Amino acid sequence: MDTRRLLLVVTVAVLVALAGCSGAGGGAGGGADAGGDVPESRSLEGDGGGASNGAEDGGGGTAEATYTVSEDGETVAAVAERRLIRTGDLRVTVDSFEEADAEARSIAEEYGGFVSDSTREIRERGDENYTVGSLTIRVPSEDFDAAVADLEALGTVDRSTTESRDVTDRIADLEARLENRRAERDRLRELYEEANTTEDVLAVQSELSDVQAEIERMETQLASLEERVALSTIRVELREEPPDPSTVSTAWYDTGVVTAFLESVRGLGTVLRAAVVGAAYAAPYLLAAGLPLLGVGFAIRRRLSRSNAEE
């Protein structure tokens, strides 16, 4: 019984060591992904619209050719699909926010997508209002370019940016680590079934719980990446043209009583501040001209006083 328990403890220790090695390999793979993101961005600033240009095929992937040499010396091209997360950011000036917003939602539905978030804000300039807002649209990756082009056609494009992030290595790394952890989980389950003592059961159960938690965490990460690859994200900001400030005017008698009083107080403060500043500017000149005049006046007064005393 002691020998069997010893073998069981050694087996669990070996599995833990293998898990540590696999985790280290996974971390290296994650670092390769962090440094291997390949952004492909297109930015458009101006008044014109246009479709996004992308070399990607459907499903959020690109066809990347690699070359190998066969046994007879011929070069053979092998095509590997790259997994890309594609995002877009648009700002479009429209004639009517309501119409553009409805059209943008229709575009999302047309391509089998949906609007995940939206905002709307009504702003004032004088007596006139104008509306600005944004929508976050998710569409299948194969329809990303077409959806961006349709959204740009809603009005005048002020900004258009698209970006692609390569997560192929990250997904491959997660899949490999998941396969290893699942195999490790199966071996631990076998050991759990064979354990005869409470101590052995608890040791294997603790290790099995840790492995299961790591499997679930990696499955969540993989599902999130797969979802972001399958559905691209487009954020579009819609803005109505603000009214021209020169055309906005308000009659003085339409001003509120409180507003008129506050403006009057501000005006009085401005006048007093201007008087103080003007006096500060004039002080040097007054001193320069006033001191000689003051000296002459003092001399004249003294002379008159002396003359009166002599009489």
From TrEMBL:
Superkingdom assignment: Archaea
Coiled coil ranges: 164-235
Organism for this UniProt entry: Halorubrum cibi
Biased composition annotated in UniProt, kind: Gly residues: 46-62
Keyword terms, alphabetized: Coiled coil, Membrane, Transmembrane, Transmembrane helix
The protein, known as: DUF4349 domain-containing protein
Record's signal peptide: none
Chain segments carrying region Disordered: 26-65
